[in-house]
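Our working data are protein records whose layout never changes between entries. An example says more than a description, so a record of this kind follows.
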Amino acid sequence: MRKIAGLILAGILGFALPSSAQTPAQAPAHPKASMAPKVGTAAKTGTVPARAYDRALLRPALLKEKAPETFQVKFETTRGDFTMTVTRAWAPIGADRFYNLVKHHFYDNMVVFRAVPGFVVQFGISSYPPVAAAWSNANINDDPVKQSNQRGYVTYAKTDSPNTRSTQIFISFKDNSFLDSKGFAPFAVVDPTGMKVVEMLYDQYGDQPTGEQDQIASGGKAYLDKKYPKLDVIKHATLVGGAAVPPAKPAAAPKTVPAAQKPQ
């Protein structure tokens, strides 16, 4: 279930990455058997009723609608709103998956569990354990990389293995073009105004929650609310129509990054 964009300790994924080459990656797709709730069961936390999510999300294989050639998604968060513009030609398989997820409100009430200053912000683990379990093996094939992972561009997290994209996505805070050769294919971009909101998402936990993705998947939002109460939440992610003009160039990154916040 874990999909990690960044430097990960060998103990988390079972392999080491050089500190000079941070790589968005997904850890094993399965939550631990003892932790994974059965599809269709209610979350044991008792804080959110099963009806809070679209039950179509329990059957990923049926969500295969083709996306428009371009469309926009508005994210309403606890820090403000931002909009992504998706261009299907950039990564058709990824765009189709994202379109179906948003259409069925997969990203609603979702915690943004990872924000690393100067690198990426990442989310995509459902707040509802039955939904997280349903999508744990619902991977899609890779798209060829047609756009570079620049500031503001949106890409799926994955492992070093082929065809391991699922539901987790990340937004680059800076030029992460080194990811292009590793198969990370951007499918959308956040507008300049929206990037100002993205950069305000709570980042003081850093990568700490990233190593707990199995627990997040099995415990849902209640787990994060209890252990990481300051994390921001995506209240709604909604389709808002196609882009009338080509995607705007993302806002320029800050000229300097405090030394303590630079990626390792």
User: Anything to note?
Assistant: The two ends are 24 Å apart (CA to CA). The domain at 65-245 is CATH 2.40.100.10 (Cyclophilin). The chain is about 15% helix and 20% strand.
